[in-house]
Structure formats: structure tokens, C-alpha cells
Amino acid sequence: MCARSPVLNQSGPTEFVFRVFTTVPELQVLLFALFLVLYLTILCGNTAIIWVVCTHCSLHTPMYFFLCNLSFLEICYTTVVVPLMLSNILGAQKPIPLAGCGAQMFFFVTLGSTDCFLLAVMAYDRYVAIRHPLHYTLIVTQKLCVRMVGCAGGLASLLSLQLTVLIFTLPFCGHRPEINHFLCDVPPVLRLACADIRVHQAVLYAVGSLVLTVPFLLISVSYVLIGSAIVRIRSAEGRRRAFSTCSSHLAVVLLQYGCCSLVYLRPRSSTSEDEDRQIALIYTFVTPLLNPLIYSLRNKDVKGALKNALVSKAASDNT
């Protein structure tokens, strides 16, 4: 912890630097290539989901509308983090201005929070589809879908803006403090503050609970009700199909909430900065990478649409 002297408290820093992964040039090149390949795969996979949903009329349903928005969020989410991360892997440490760090934190928290809220909205969609199939199209209308996505983004933006402003009103230690992370995430930036941060940590925990715990509880309740409805389905094929429509979403929920909870809801005394950075690599790369794979490999409609698109493309190239 840095010293909290009156001189340091007079003004905040003009820029931050990120701690490097390694100073070995060969390892820097290897990490750069690895993260670049993962980033491009994430862009291609999620763009493919968006393209398939938008170009196939059979997928113009609420479930795939939400999936399309989820893929768009994953693209934006990784783009906020990875290009800057890649630029800092090779060579010496590169500074990021205070305003740039604040902007990255705002968009990172906004997109991550919207992702969590959207997963709760998708759980509600599956609940209505299985519990009230005859009234599904009357309840989950296009207007309602747009409103729910808009509310998710609006609430996430409001919470993120308040949290970011609160943190960047703090004084920080030194002119160019080093963030032990590869992005301007809230916990590592808070650790650099030269002031009492107990109130800020309490606000972070409250926001984290609202963004993670509340949607997760809603998702859990939805799946309890969905499970009770599936059990009452008489045919084994009907139960299998009903479960199949929910299993992809449930897998993404467990992966997303598991990683984020380890970073934002653990007591600060039990956290390690290096552990947080390692977990952040999972929800920055693994979760956005697996989302399109999980939905495409476990969803017959998406697989069928992708197959038809590839066959049509191959046929058009041969003519």
C-alpha cells in the first residue's frame, strides 16, 4: 500500500501504466499471438451468430433476438479490453491517460453488467416459452423484447457511470501508478487510491450484488419453475427438447456468474491481485469464446442455419 502523504493527496495522476505479463521478448510474442488469435476467433464466432440470426427468417424469434444481442455485447466487451491489452504486451509499458482509464472502466462495467441483466432476461424468455407456450407470442412481443434489452443497457450504464465517477474523484499515489492488471477494472484501480476507500468498496460490493446476485436469483427462480414444468411433460422426447432449449443458456450463466462472483463478491481480504488478473482472463476470453460455440453446438436451429448458409455459399462460389 502506498504512503498517503499530503503531497500525494494534492493532485491525482495524469496517467496509469499496466503491469506487464512478462519482460521476456519471446514470451511477449507468444502471448501476443495467442491473445490475438483468441480475439479474432471471438469476433468471427459472435459475428457468425449475428449474421445467421439476421439472415434466416426462421430465427427471427425472441430467443434468437436476445442471442444476437448477447453476441453483439461479447464483441463490444472484448473490443474494449483486448486491443489496448495487445498494445501493452510488446515492448515497454505504455501509459494510459486518466480519462482513457475512466472511459475503459465505464464501458467495461457497462457491457459486463448489461451481459448479466440480459442473461436474466433470456431466462424469463425460456420460462414463458416452457410454462406458457400457448401464450408465448402474446406475452413476449417484439416491443417487450426491445424494451427489456433497452432497460438492461440503461440500468447498466447508470450504475457504471456512478461507480466510475465515484472512483475517479479519489486521489491516487504518484504521477504514474502501476495497475496490476491488463485493464482499468475497479478493484485494481481502487487499490492505488491514496485515501480511505471503505465507502467506495462498500459501493462496489453493493453494485456487484445488484448486478450479479439479483439477476442470478431471478434466473434461479425461473429455472426452478422451468424444471417443475419439464417434469410434468409426459413424453421423454418432449422433456428432452424442453431441456435442450435451456441447457445452452444455463451453461453460459454458470460460466459468467461463477467467474465474475470470484472477482467482485469475494471479501477483499481473501483476494489476490494476481488471482483476479487470472480470473479476468477467463471472462475476457473464455466466456465470449465459448458462448457462440455453446449455442451453435447445442442448438439444432443454429446448426441447421449455419450448415445451409455454408452450403449456399459453396454452391454460389462454384457457379
UniProtKB/TrEMBL annotation:
GO molecular function, one term: odorant binding
Bilayer disposition of the protein: Multi-pass membrane protein
Pfam families, per the entry: 7tm_4
Transmembrane segments: 29-52, 64-86, 106-124, 144-168, 202-226, 247-266, 278-297
UniProt keyword annotations, A-Z: Cell membrane, G-protein coupled receptor, Membrane, Olfaction, Receptor, Sensory transduction, Transducer, Transmembrane, Transmembrane helix
Superkingdom in the source lineage: Eukaryota
One CC-aspect GO term: plasma membrane
Alphabetical list of InterPro entries matching this protein: GPCR_Rhodpsn (IPR000276), GPCR_Rhodpsn_7TM (IPR017452), Olfact_rcpt (IPR000725)
Residue span(s) of domain G-protein coupled receptors family 1 profile: 45-295
Cellular localisation: Cell membrane
PANTHER family: OLFACTORY RECEPTOR
Family membership noted in the UniProt record: Belongs to the G-protein coupled receptor 1 family.
Role summary: Putative odorant or sperm cell receptor.
UniProt name for this protein: Olfactory receptor
